Every structure is written in C-alpha cells, then in structure tokens.
Amino acid sequence: MRTRKVLLVIGFLVTWTYATYYLLLRQTGIHTSRHQSLQAYKLNSQARDANMQSHHLAKNVFEFVKLKYLEKQPPSVASTPQISIIAAEISAELPEQHVAKSATARIPTKTYLANGEPVFPVVVFACNRVSVKKCIDNLVQYRPSVEQFPIIVSQDCGDEPTKEAILSYGKQVTLIEQPDLSDITVLPKEKKFKGYYKIARHYGWALNTTFAVGFEFVIIVEDDLNVAPDFFEYFLGTHKLLKQDPSLWCVSAWNDNGKAAVVDAAQPELLYRTDFFPGLGWMLTKDLWAELSVKWPKSFWDDWIRHPAQRKDRVCIRPEISRTRTFGKIGVSNGLFFDKYLKHIKLSEDFVQFTKINMSYLLKDNYDNTFLRRVYTYPIVTYDELRRNLIRIEGPVRIQYTTREQYKRTTKMLGLMDDFKSGVPRTAYHGIVSFYYNKRRVHLAPNANWKGYELSWS
C-alpha cells in the first residue's frame, strides 16, 4: 500500500511536468508579431529546459525509491523511519544537487571482496565532539584494509567544527549527515532525555541508510571509543558465528566488567557468550536489522534492545579483555558510571589472530555442554575466603547467590557492576557472571536449579 502511494506521488510529478510543458507550448502558438515570436521562441526553449530538468528529477526520484525501497530490501526491512525519509525527499522536490549529495550515493557500494569475503562497514556515530578525531585516528591506524573496512562517519547535530574535523581525513573516511535535525517534541517530564530521542532517531536513519547498500554486516562505533590493535581481526574471526548460530545476535568488543583488576591479562584470546547486550563497539547482521528496524524505538534504544521482547533469549559474544575503551566522560549520559567503572576498563594491547582460532566452542550446544556443566562442578566459596586467599585448592571456584540483594552486595564488594537491565546482570550467561580475582577464575552463579531472569530485579 505504501509502495502504491509513493508511485502515485511520482506519477503526479511526471503528469504535472508534461501538463506545464503543454500549457507553455500553447502560449507560444499565437504569432502576433516578430517581437512576440522571439519571446515565444525563448519561452519555448525555457519550457523544454524545464521539462528536461523536471523529467530528470522524476527519473532520479524513481530510481532512488526503486533502489532504496523497492529492490534492495525485503518488505520486512522497510521501516517507518526509512519511508518517512523517502516521502520527505519527494514532497520537498529536492533540487538535483541535493539528491547528488544524498548519503546513500556516497557510501562505498562494494559489499564483497574479489575473494568472496564480506565488506564490513564501520559506522562511527558522531555529533558535536571534535574529539571524534581520537576515535578515527585509532580506526585508521589499525585498519588492515581500506577496501574491506570502509569507515563511514554518520554525523547528527550539524556541528561545523566536528564536520571539519571529519572531512580533514579526506578519502580515508566517508561522511554522511543525518538530514533530520528538527527538534523532537517530548512530554515535559521527558525533556531532560531529549538527547536520547535524537540518538535513537540518528541510529535508525544511519543503519537504514548503510544496510540499504546491501552489506551483510555493520560494525557500530561511538565517537568516544578507542579500539585495540586487533579490533578488526576480532570481528573477522567471529562474524561467521552470527550466521552459523541462530541463538547469537551480536558480537561485542566490550566487557562491562573489564577492569584490569578483574580480568585475566594472560588470556586475551578468551571469549564468552552473554545474555547481556554490551554494545560499545559491536557488530550486527542485515537480518537482525530487518527485524529490529520495523519497530525501532523513539528513545533509549540500548535498553529497549535488552528487553525480552527484542532479545528473545538470544545472546552476544564478548571478550575477556575489551577491544574498546571509552574516553567520553562528557555526553548525553553526563558521565554515568565513568569515574567508577568505565575509565578503569582495560583495553587489550595484544594482537590475537582470531581468524586462526577455532571458534566452534562458542556455538550454543558446545558452550552449554562445557561451560555450564563445568561451572557447577567448581567448589563454592565465600567472598571473604576469596579476598583473604584462604582457599587451599587450585583452579576456578564459584560464589553462589540466591537473591537480588545478595548479588548486589557481593558485586559491590568485588568491584563489579551491580545493576540489572531487564533482569539480566551485566556480562551474565544463564545468570553466571565470570571474572578473575586474586589470580583465580571465579564464577558468581545462581543455584543449579536456576529458573531464568526476573524482570523485577531491574
């Protein structure tokens, strides 16, 4: 139905063009004088030029709709934000030069390399922080291939100094600009959260625009992140898991409990499955975006994506040692958690050749048959025994929790993040939070008869 409406608008535009041309031609048919004939000739030429320009505009608009809406995506991908963008561009009768500067036309269009490997666009979300240069510098420094990892910086806000900083990289990066900079009307009590509404709108537009090209994967990076030397290798080594295992829906480079004191620096290659969506440098597939885009929220997209209605018991891959680290204390969240947790996150300095590691241990059946089974064979200890090194046996141990209050009290003592999102503790898998403490692997775990997450714990 929406497709028919769009085509009707195009049909009206073409009809109007030819009707205008016909009326102008009729005016030139009255030859009352040589002077009028000359004027008529000029008018006729102008009419022809106008007709050609209007016809060209109609053709461009039709091709744009055909590429962006009718051909490139299955019906499930055509989200409301994307349709709104198309409708706005048609109704405004954009001049040709504006169409030429559209974001879709400027994004690299190669989706696979000659050897069959996919292209992974890295979309950097920026707004009004010139410090985005720190992020881009890092990405450019460690990028192994310009062709396989095109960097696309998507800017909201329209901040000129930030735009100039991005453009200073020339052909090393591609700049696309969020076209909708209009204010967002919110309820008075939501006014302080308006920034989150704009972020969600920006994410929806940028991901629609990028996936419309035909990429299989997109890597998302915020403008306040530094990346590790093997950041790109990490995603090269794990992307196939997203296609192999339907229980996986993202790969994240972030460990929420990645402070230096609670990670094993000797195991930079170690990866986990987690029920918690980490974000902060993550990869998703076009199939997942096709599912999420049709119901993309107006604000707080990261909390929304963690809700059971979206997660559907799917999990992410996350590292023992983070491959990203945030330097952005100032932002929409006003430095939430930064001083206490985020600034202490350890960024991996090693280069792990993930593409040469067998990742099959992360597939659901393999992981559950090893990780879950082993955790509940480890001896139960108390926090005090762990802290005072009173445990006489070697190897991993388990600290058990049964209530929300017990979990929060234990994590605070251990220096871990103690909050829940949709009932899920950060980094947890089946309620188990794994970390490293006093040179020992520790699993903070619920009872063996655990029945699932409780939304009331959030």
UniProtKB/TrEMBL annotation:
<dbReference type="InterPro" id="IPR052261">
    <property type="entry name" value="Glycosyltransferase_13"/>
</dbReference>
<dbReference type="GO" id="GO:0006491">
    <property type="term" value="P:N-glycan processing"/>
</dbReference>
<keyword id="KW-0963">Cytoplasm</keyword>
<dbReference type="GO" id="GO:0035284">
    <property type="term" value="P:brain segmentation"/>
</dbReference>
<dbReference type="GO" id="GO:0035010">
    <property type="term" value="P:encapsulation of foreign target"/>
</dbReference>
<comment type="pathway">
    <text>Protein modification; protein glycosylation.</text>
</comment>
<dbReference type="GO" id="GO:0030145">
    <property type="term" value="F:manganese ion binding"/>
</dbReference>
<comment type="similarity">
    <text>Belongs to the glycosyltransferase 13 family.</text>
</comment>
<keyword id="KW-0328">Glycosyltransferase</keyword>
<dbReference type="GO" id="GO:0048471">
    <property type="term" value="C:perinuclear region of cytoplasm"/>
</dbReference>
<keyword id="KW-0808">Transferase</keyword>
<dbReference type="InterPro" id="IPR004139">
    <property type="entry name" value="Glyco_trans_13"/>
</dbReference>
<keyword id="KW-0812">Transmembrane</keyword>
<keyword id="KW-0472">Membrane</keyword>
<dbReference type="Pfam" id="PF03071">
    <property type="entry name" value="GNT-I"/>
</dbReference>
<dbReference type="GO" id="GO:0003827">
    <property type="term" value="F:alpha-1,3-mannosylglycoprotein 2-beta-N-acetylglucosaminyltransferase activity"/>
</dbReference>
<keyword id="KW-0464">Manganese</keyword>
<keyword id="KW-0735">Signal-anchor</keyword>
<protein>
    <recommendedName>
        <fullName>Alpha-1,3-mannosyl-glycoprotein 2-beta-N-acetylglucosaminyltransferase</fullName>
        <ecNumber>2.4.1.101</ecNumber>
    </recommendedName>
</protein>
<keyword id="KW-1133">Transmembrane helix</keyword>
<keyword id="KW-0479">Metal-binding</keyword>
<comment type="function">
    <text>Initiates complex N-linked carbohydrate formation. Essential for the conversion of high-mannose to hybrid and complex N-glycans.</text>
</comment>
<dbReference type="GO" id="GO:0005794">
    <property type="term" value="C:Golgi apparatus"/>
</dbReference>
<dbReference type="GO" id="GO:0000139">
    <property type="term" value="C:Golgi membrane"/>
</dbReference>
<keyword id="KW-0333">Golgi apparatus</keyword>
<dbReference type="GO" id="GO:0006487">
    <property type="term" value="P:protein N-linked glycosylation"/>
</dbReference>
<dbReference type="GO" id="GO:0016319">
    <property type="term" value="P:mushroom body development"/>
</dbReference>
<dbReference type="GO" id="GO:0005797">
    <property type="term" value="C:Golgi medial cisterna"/>
</dbReference>
<keyword id="KW-1015">Disulfide bond</keyword>
<dbReference type="InterPro" id="IPR029044">
    <property type="entry name" value="Nucleotide-diphossugar_trans"/>
</dbReference>
<dbReference type="GO" id="GO:0008344">
    <property type="term" value="P:adult locomotory behavior"/>
</dbReference>
